[in-house]
UniProtKB/TrEMBL annotation:
EC number: 7.1.1.1
Protein's organism: Gloeomargarita lithophora Alchichica-D10
Role: The transhydrogenation between NADH and NADP is coupled to respiration and ATP hydrolysis and functions as a proton pump across the membrane.
GO CC, alphabetical: plasma membrane
Name listed for the protein in its UniProt record: NAD(P) transhydrogenase subunit beta
Taxonomic lineage of the native organism: Bacteria, Bacillati, Cyanobacteriota, Cyanophyceae, Gloeomargaritales
Transmembrane segments: 6-26, 38-56, 62-81, 93-112, 124-146, 166-183, 189-210, 217-236, 242-261
One Pfam family in the UniProt entry: PNTB
Amino acid sequence: MNLLRFLPTGIELTYLVAVSLFIIGIKKLGSPATARLGNVWAAVGMLLAVVATLLQQQVLNYGQILLGLVIGSLVGAWMAYRVEMTAMPQMVGLLNGLGGAASVLIAGGEFWRSTLSGTPLAPAALISTLLGVLIGGVTFTGSLLAFAKLQGWVTGNPVILPLQRWLTAGLAVTTLGASIFLLTAPLNLAVFAGMLALSLLFGVLFVLPIGGADMPVVISLLNSFSGLAAAATGFIVLNDALVVSGALVGASGLILTQIMCKAMNRSLNNVLFGAFTATQSITAGAGGTVAGAIRRTDEGETAMMLAYARSVVIVPGYGMAVAQAQHSLRELADALEQRGVAVKYAIHPVAGRMPGHMNVLLAEANVPYTQLYDMEAINPELERTDVALVVGANDVVNPAARHDKNSPIYGMPILEVDKAQRTVVIKRGMSRGYAGVENELFYKDRTAMLFGSAREVIAQLLNEVKQLA
């Protein structure tokens, strides 16, 4: 017996190394301290997988492949360099969509090739092709719509069309019927094209009724969809590395989606089909008026409060991201630490507009990872905290989530900054958060409001702190 035939080839060994690097990279992405290194490990793994694929497959024109790699790399590098950190969610959504589009093109090309040759695809290949088109089509248009919502081109409010549930259900049934028909008539190009159109429409209807408050969950889920579409494509082109990497992305995306839902104390079904609808928001806004008066403060009083505190917990929110105040915030924290103040940052899982948004922004400002605390770790310490400084956060610090059963955010775990000895909230005004409800925190006796652009206010606070003896 020739045992050599059971040994893996160089290509297979390279794929094994690449997949191992993917797994190591995902593991390191679980901590802010190792996330950058995790990206590098995963990128090296992808480079190995691409090179091995080019050596394994019978590529008709290496010149065209090289040209595509160069163009794609240059465009990707330019996008990554030019994108602002506040627009990172939009970029992630767009890249998810491009991943879905790539799967659709490969699956569609394979089906087109089979119809031209008159040779039907094998049942397993046909099922993979249909899955690639269905999942990829939904991912493509759904991600583009999510991008448009985040970019402000389309309203971020939930949009419910007349009879939308019936329309969506009808699309799902029709698409399923078309898929079953193609299994019996695998050369019917017209039905395949119709199924593709339905999947693209389904992606729009999938994201349209989901509001801006749920965008972190939507981005995570669409990221998972792009991985599943890639895995289906791997079965089409018989590429092991693509199957495994797509499955890893799909699984990790689903896990992250579940983490986001848990952080909001909502089920995935509720996010997708019962999100913060317009009716809920209006009801909460009309009946959720908070009794009491706000207390305003100024930069001088706040600077003294911070400078003479023993401990300060900073809560960054999307308002900080919009104002690009993370660098000034780090300088303020450094000045406070020089005075002996213990400074920590409290990070809510769904703060910002995508998972990990606040961590990325603070890492950009070189905030030490050791100062970043998640919600479970920091909440027990807030009762012993002298000052909680909330910078542009809203719903994630609203105490109504603990007791107001009529509130759309009821049950959502929050950063309990209202338990600190003093709380200062930096905001442009009294506008409501994505949930559309008043924030009880703003009316608490121990809360003071400091109005203005976060970047300008924090810069003034820094100057005031430096002038104190």
